[in-house]
Write a structure and sequence with these properties.
Layout: H1 4-14, H2 17-26, E1 31-32, H3 33-38, H4 44-56, E2 60-65, E3 68-73, H5 76-86, H6 89-106
Helix pairs in contact: 1-4, 1-5
């Protein structure tokens, strides 16, 4: 992740359940726009807009094969987001430790 703006784009992209579902589908392998759209009740243009957001965030790569657009997952930006979140993991662990101590005192 090169900068804060890129990280913002990643978090914006994964903040939407449809885009997260698209990423989950692409984790199984590359797909055409049409194949991706079949898994949703949304229109194909709407799916294309979601794919555009994912592409702008660097989470998918698109290539053309004839008339088809093929999308592939690019997971590297997700690793950068995970790294950013991991900084806060110590707070979660501390909270869980405090909860455990509290529950043990209640027994």
């Amino acid at each position: 992740m090169q900068n804060a703006a890129q990280l913002d784009r990643v978090f914006c992209a994964i903040g939407n359940k449809t885009r997260r579902a698209i990423l989950a589908n692409l984790a199984e392998g590359e797909q055409t726009t049409g194949a991706i759209a079949k898994g949703f009740t949304l229109s194909r243009p709407t799916i294309s807009k979601h794919l555009g957001v994912l592409k702008a965030a660097g989470l998918v790569k698109r290539r053309h094969e004839g008339r088809n657009q093929i999308y592939t997952l690019e997971a590297e930006p997700l690793a950068a987001a995970r790294n950013w979140l991991s900084h806060y993991e110590r707070f979660w662990r501390l909270s869980m430790t405090r909860l455990q101590q509290h529950l043990e005192q209640k027994q």
